[in-house]
Write a structure and sequence with these properties.
mainly alpha, 61% helix, 132 residues
Length: 132
């Protein structure tokens, strides 16, 4: 297949326009940097890299207590527990000592860690009713 009627002049002039625009932008950036240096202003690098930061802070006592309470309430609400199991979980919730829990299982930096520790602490108390 042959393409006819296309001028190479149009292509070269378009390429020249792109190159000229790039050169103009580089010149403007250089001038801005020189002016900033002249006035004693610090400039950022033109190329910035994407940076992902994860929170490295641990949960405090209030956060841990909230997550632990929610965990226990979900277990008591969603499972078909025996009366004894429900009473034991409710008693654990009423006497829950956040500081002691964090000392034994912490520090925590995610909800998943808190849930795993809660399961370790109360897993033996969870007993489901048997369907007859």
């Amino acid at each position: 297949m042959e393409i006819t009627g296309v001028s190479t002049n149009a292509y070269t002039s378009a390429a020249a326009a792109v190159e000229e625009e790039d050169e103009l932008q580089e010149t403007q950036e250089e001038n801005a940097t020189e002016e900033a240096k002249e006035y004693g202003v610090a400039t950022k690098e033109a190329e910035e890299k994407d940076v992902t930061q994860f929170s490295s802070s641990d949960y405090d006592e209030d956060d841990v207590e909230e997550k632990a309470t929610n965990y226990l309430k979900n277990i008591m609400f969603t499972n078909n527990l025996t009366d004894e199991s429900s009473a034991a979980l409710q008693n654990y919730l009423n006497t829950f000592d956040v500081a002691d829990f964090m000392k034994k299982y912490g520090p925590f930096s995610s909800t998943a860690e808190i849930s795993a520790a809660m399961y370790a602490a109360v897993g033996s108390l969870i007993k489901q009713q048997e369907d007859e």
